[in-house]
User: Fold this.
Amino acid sequence: MNVHSKSGTFQGGYVAGQLVKWIFLLATALVTLFPIVMAILGSFKTNAELTAGATILPSVWQFSNYVTAWKQANFARFTWNSLFVSVAVTVGTLLVASMAAYAMDRTRFPGKKLYAALQAGTMFISIGAVVLRPQFDLMVKLGLNKSLWGVIIILISAHATTYFMLIGFFKAIPRDLDEAAYIDGCNFYTVYWRIVLPLLRPALGVTALFTFRGAWNEYILPLVFTMTNPKLQTLTVGLANLRYGVGAAAETQLMMAGACLSFLPILVVYIVANKSFMQVTAGAVKG
Amino acid sequence: MRKRISLFNSYVFIFPSLFLTLALGIYPIVWALRYMFYEYPGYGQEKFVGLANFSRLLRDTEFWHSVANTFVYAAGKIIIVLPISLLLAVILNRGLRGKGLLRAVYFMPTIISTSVMSIVFFTIFNSYNGLLNQFLLKYGLTSKAIDWLGPDYAMLTVIITAVWGAIGNYMLLFIAGLQGIPEDVYESASIDGANAVQKFWHITIPMLGPVLQMIVMLAIITALKGYESIMVMTEGGPVGKTTVMYLYVYKLFFPVSVTSSTVQEIGYGSAVGFVTALIVGVITIFYFYMSRRLNQD
Assistant:
């Protein structure tokens, strides 16, 4: 802080500077929080109050919106579907990525460089929505489009980011431990399961958080897979479809309640673990 | 013997990853490269048509509009996001009361699903019963409802939504970059009497150089690729005003909503997808070399 200055005008400039800075910070914070707060408060309003607008707090708190969303608008099912997809994708991604990272870090084999290049390549090549179609067709051929397993497998296949993060963490696990374990009678598999995975736990925790959030928030893939099967819709898809439901264009309060159901759990986790979120996301996916 | 076992083990452990990547990452690309040359509505027999899809693409004004829209969208988003997030990062990188809390707040949007927040923004910007219009009308800030999702403002609205979702992430990337600048450079500048603005232009920006270039590149790529939020908010409408390239590709493969039905055009869609990826790739490479040359001068 440069408060070295003795001249009064400079002090004035400093105060003005601080003021501008704080106005900027607080205005940005306000704009950032506004839609989230609006959604939360809106979820407790009646539809009439919501569409008449311009009240901040609900005049009467309608907790029944959540009951209606949960039961009538099927959010119980959507939540279960989202949870199922997210847990399965997280477990699968961590397993597949940690196995690959283990083999890559600890062994040498023909084709190793090719695999490394392939993983790096998948991070850069993207032809967007085109790939959805062949992925979908493959799942139809395997009969996996009738459940959410198709979505899960496709999401697990996109594990390159997790793989690269884990490879970084592997460098911190000393190979001496492996050697000692081999002498004690462990083999390749038990070293992975009993030595490497437990030591990797902090890294796995952080990447799990990240993968879970990604799967929970995924929209386009579950949308494509559930177009003909509404029972399989996840929260993100079910919520977006509320815009077209019977008379639902008018039921903004249910959309808000549904939005809160989908983001409040993850927001609570974020508030508890916000450092980990920030660490992992620095340099990652969303823009 | 031991070596052979370990070789086998390596392949066992690599296999799931390799298999999934090949089947669901590489195969779809090969698939698209093949179908670019076919006419195929998604059922029945496909028909080889050579380069017909590409000549059609050259005459497809809807596609070129989507290219123009993408540029407007990406430019608008980047021009707003980067200065704000850089400024936030610079302020929050120094010792500041409450910086942890503020960082957490700015970062919050990136936690929440893009599609879900787009629904919330949809209700806020909705033309007739949207919260924003109701608010503006009630306090007399406008005499009649503004059609935020109509032809005049829809692009602005989707850009605002995108900016809202992106600032926190870029702020964090900038903070990570700023932490690479040694503190004593600032201290010696302070002793020489430099003020905050001078320090920003003469130390922060030049020393952030390479990181800044990477972040700008990332910003360009993600902005060119984004379509999820637009799909939820406007479905590319009204009258195609917010259809971006990747959304246009999506529309050729799948119906956009449960209410609309579109004709699937697999072959043509593959060609459009290929050209779209090519456009993004060329822009990225062009930017990469331009920024490298600027560095050398």
Summary: The radius of gyration of chain A is 25 Å. Confidence is low (pLDDT under 50) at residues 1-7, 283-287 of chain A. Chain A touches chain B through 92 residues (CB under 8 Å). Residues 8-42 of chain A form the longest helix (35 residues).
